């Protein structure tokens, strides 16, 4: 499968949200540093800060699932979340709506998840907390 048109064909309303967050040599929200901390990228894809889900989220996720991307956040899901979908969800049902919960992944791969980050998200593990403030990457 070919990659979607990340630039939205020149239409800013159809442009991938990730294009506004440029990586630097020291920091990349979407591919991280190997520690499994991808929450910022997920927030960008899923519209946590903008109240607008990326218009290319489903296409991006389909691209990653079909091409078996082994790294980074694609379509708002991590490598483990995509691996779970590929293994346990019928191909004709692959979508963001079939994303597994943390508990689903722990039941199958208990030793592969990074520890939960409760500092910014609150103690319930939900996305977004009062202390969390988003600062866009320079670029």
Question: How are the elements arranged and paired?
Answer:
Blueprint: H1 39-46, H2 57-66, H3 79-88, H4 102-108, H5 118-121
Low-confidence stretches: 118-139
Q: How many β-strands, per DSSP?
A: 0
Helix and strand run: HHHHH
- What's the tally of helices? 5
Shape, principal axes of CA atoms: globular
What value does the Rg take, in angstroms?
A: 15 Å
Largest sheet: none
Q: Which structural class do you get from the secondary structure elements?
A: mainly alpha
Mean pLDDT across the residues is 80
Helical content (DSSP H or I, runs of 4+): 25-40%
Residue fraction in strands: under 5%
Distance between the termini: 29 Å
Explained architecture:
With 139 residues, the protein is an all-alpha fold. It has five helices and no strands. The chain has helices spanning 39-46, 57-66, 79-88, 102-108, 118-121. The longest helix has 10 residues, at 57-66. It is globular, with a radius of gyration of 15 Å.
